[in-house]
Amino acid sequence: MDRFFVLVARHALLLHSLQDPVRESRVIPALNERILQHNAQLTAFIAKLSEEKRQLRHTLVKLEEETWKFRQREHNQIKVVLYHRSVTQQNRGARCGIVPVTLLRNGGSSR
To answer: What is the rounded distance in angstroms from the CA atom of residue 110 to the CA atom of residue 45?
Structure first.
């Protein structure tokens, strides 16, 4: 991008420094052609950047969805593990004659 502005400035200085109308008439079309070429290159570059930006945004959305799903799965797995632990502990307590605190609070008996 900076290279483009340097070239435009250089061409503008060249145009300004020209004194000969005949020489100027030969330089102006060439200068216009170069400017048009640079403009086309910049336009293509911006289009490429815009496409890459679109693809990156799409990828980011997909990654965010995957992260959310992973966290949900992980959370659900933790809940299942904790549930199984509590059931296992209650079963062990029942075999040993230990009454879970929740049963005592609800008025339950140990046997």
So the answer is: 78
Give the position of tokens 């145009």.
Answer: 15
pTM above 0.90, yes or no: no
Spell out the domain ranges in the chain: 2-105
Listed as ranges, residues in the chain with pLDDT below 50 are: 110-111
Instruction: Tell me, letter by letter, the H, E, C secondary structure of the chain.
Output: CHHHHHHHHHHHHHHHHCCCHHHHHHHHHHHHHHHHHHHHHHHHHHHHHHHHHHHHHHHHHHHHHHHHHHHHHHHHHHHHHHHHHHHHHHHHHHHHCCCCHHHHHCCCCCC
**Rounded CA gap, 8 and 92, in Å?**
84
Give 73-85 pLDDT, tens digit per residue.
998 888 888 888 8
pLDDT tens per residue across span 98-110: 555 555 555 555 4
CA distance 81 to 87: 10
